[in-house]
Amino acid sequence: MTPAVPEASLTALMHLLTEQALLSMGVPHPMVKEVPPANPTVARFYVDLLTVLREKTEGSRTDGETAQIDEILYQLRMRVMDLKPAPEPSVAPK
Questions:
Q1: Tens digit of each residue's pLDDT, the chain (94 residues)
Q2: Where are the domains of the chain?
């Protein structure tokens, strides 16, 4: 059985980006069996994408969409602050 595909909307886009941010933070998703380790750089990228989305849709969102994206960004920013920085790749001496 194939799950229903939601209608394309601003809310759907916000949730898609939120899911990706959470997965990048190492938060398990019920549909994913194996969660890769947290990647703070990628998590911050998705938070930045949501910030751009918020800025670019200013004046076009409903009150509900505005409240939703503001809450999403607040929650994600609180979580991303708790992430340890990604380790620097080690360079082997020549």
A1: 667 888 999 999 999 999 999 999 988 877 777 777 889 999 999 999 999 999 999 999 999 999 999 999 999 999 988 877 655 666 655 5
A2: 10-27+37-82
pTM of the model: 0.80
Residue with tokens 């076009």: 60
DSSP symbols for 32-51: -SSPPPP-HHHHHHHHHHHH
Quote the distance between the C-alpha of residue 63 and its chain's center.
Answer: 21
Residue 72 region, left (φ>0) first, then alpha (ψ -120 to 50), else beta? alpha
Contacts for 72-75: CB closer than 8 Å, 24+ residues apart? 72/14, 72/18, 73/47
Query: Residue 85: which H helix or E strand, with range?
Result: none
Strand positions, DSSP E, the chain? none
